[in-house]
């Protein structure tokens, strides 16, 4: 209530009865609201319980669905793996079927007698191809070790004919028979020895038996000198059983050699036939020429076994022919030791005769005139003179004036 004197609101006073009435009304309202509240709480609790059970059911259904999904994914992956495996097997079966069809078609095209090939023969053919590839690799390494290369030469340019180079082995030139006298004996002996070693290893790798066999005389620290003679055979070359030297001597010796057989690539005995070094120089040169011809004949026969045909006009180029053998596409496919087997030397298909090679090797490429060093040769009846100056042991020079035609 508001005081009229101080104009301030003052506390309102109630009587006891009014307060009791107000308290009674307040308690009634509180009881009424409490009942409503309890009712609403009970409803909410019941609703919450129903929602919680539904939520748990939904969660359980979700878990079951996830498990089912995982099982389906695993099953799908397994089915995919099975499909891939079956697809690979089907591809393999198709390839095998196609290969069998091709083999069957190829067998139908073959003659009737060729249709009896067995599995063993096919495996033998594969093994032969593998051996041929291995031989080819060994031959390539052999060429690199002995350093067989062609030096010099000039290609054809501007209509001018080219010139051939010289073949070397181990850095030494192996001349054709007509040019042997242009080189000192030590050079010829060294290059011939290299060539014999190269040819021996080459035939050993390829499994080829040559008509003429090389043997060695133990004279110098077990190295020895090479000799060559015919091996066993029924052809015309087989009668040349006498051993001929494959080396030159700068000075004739007064004592004959005592070559004891020291087998290298083909063992042979020299006791029954050998050319004594105390023989005349002309006889020694003829014997060396015969041995050189035997070496050239061996190279030509080796080329024939590897499907490389060497004409007589090119038989004197030994290193060039060996290079052609090493580059042959049929290298190592046929031999005397593995299938397909070759016929013993020499078969009828090899038409080159040793007598022809010997005649071409022994033919003088020019007529030599001996003059004193420093003198000039003047002959009016000689046309265009091709001269080469050769220094010999006795101080004489040799001037080539022309003559018969050989390998040179």
Automatic annotation (TrEMBL):
<dbReference type="GO" id="GO:0035493">
    <property type="term" value="P:SNARE complex assembly"/>
</dbReference>
<comment type="similarity">
    <text>Belongs to the ATG14 family.</text>
</comment>
<protein>
    <recommendedName>
        <fullName>Autophagy-related protein 14</fullName>
    </recommendedName>
</protein>
<dbReference type="GO" id="GO:0000323">
    <property type="term" value="C:lytic vacuole"/>
</dbReference>
<dbReference type="GO" id="GO:0005768">
    <property type="term" value="C:endosome"/>
</dbReference>
<dbReference type="InterPro" id="IPR018791">
    <property type="entry name" value="UV_resistance/autophagy_Atg14"/>
</dbReference>
<dbReference type="GO" id="GO:0032991">
    <property type="term" value="C:protein-containing complex"/>
</dbReference>
<feature type="region of interest" description="Disordered">
    <location>
        <begin position="247"/>
        <end position="283"/>
    </location>
</feature>
<dbReference type="Pfam" id="PF10186">
    <property type="entry name" value="ATG14"/>
</dbReference>
<dbReference type="GO" id="GO:0000149">
    <property type="term" value="F:SNARE binding"/>
</dbReference>
<keyword id="KW-0175">Coiled coil</keyword>
């Amino acid at each position: 209530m508001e005081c009229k004197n101080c104009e301030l609101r003052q506390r309102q006073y109630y009587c006891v009865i009014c307060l009791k009435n107000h308290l009674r009304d307040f308690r009634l309202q509180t009881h009424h609201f409490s009942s409503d509240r309890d009712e609403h709480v009970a409803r909410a609790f019941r609703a919450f319980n129903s929602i919680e059970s539904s939520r748990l059911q939904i969660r359980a259904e979700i878990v079951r669905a996830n498990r089912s999904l995982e099982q389906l994914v695993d099953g799908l992956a397994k089915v995919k793996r099975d499909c891939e495996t079956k697809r690979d097997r089907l591809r393999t079966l198709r390839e095998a079927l196609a290969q069998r069809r091709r083999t069957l078609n190829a067998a139908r095209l073959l003659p009737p007698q060729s249709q009896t090939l067995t599995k063993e023969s096919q495996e033998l053919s594969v093994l032969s191809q593998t051996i041929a590839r291995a031989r080819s690799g060994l031959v390539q390494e052999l060429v690199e070790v002995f350093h067989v290369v062609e030096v010099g030469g000039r290609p054809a340019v501007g209509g001018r004919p080219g010139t051939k180079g010289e073949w070397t082995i181990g850095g030494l030139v192996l001349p054709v028979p007509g040019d042997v006298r242009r080189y000192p004996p030590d050079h010829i002996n060294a290059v011939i020895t290299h060539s014999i070693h190269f040819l021996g290893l080459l035939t050993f790798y390829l499994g080829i038996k040559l008509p003429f066999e090389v043997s060695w005389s133990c004279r110098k620290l077990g190295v020895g000198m090479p000799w060559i003679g015919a091996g066993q055979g029924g052809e015309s070359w087989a009668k040349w059983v006498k051993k001929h030297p494959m080396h030159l001597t700068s000075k004739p010796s007064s004592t004959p050699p005592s070559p004891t057989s020291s087998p290298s690539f083909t063992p042979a005995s020299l006791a029954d036939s050998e050319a004594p070094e105390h023989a005349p120089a002309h006889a020694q040169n003829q014997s060396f020429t015969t041995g050189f011809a035997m070496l050239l004949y061996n190279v030509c026969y080796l080329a024939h076994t590897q499907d490389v045909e060497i004409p007589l006009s090119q038989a004197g180029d030994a290193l060039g022919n060996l290079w052609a053998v090493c580059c042959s596409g049929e290298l190592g496919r046929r031999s005397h030791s593995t299938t397909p087997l070759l016929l013993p030397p020499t078969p009828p298909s090899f038409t080159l005769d040793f007598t022809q090679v010997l005649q071409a090797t022994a033919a003088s490429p020019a007529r030599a005139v001996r003059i004193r060093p420093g003198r000039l040769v003047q002959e009016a009846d000689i046309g265009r003179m091709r001269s080469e100056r050769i220094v010999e042991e006795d101080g004489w020079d040799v001037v080539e004036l022309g003559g018969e035609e050989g390998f040179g």
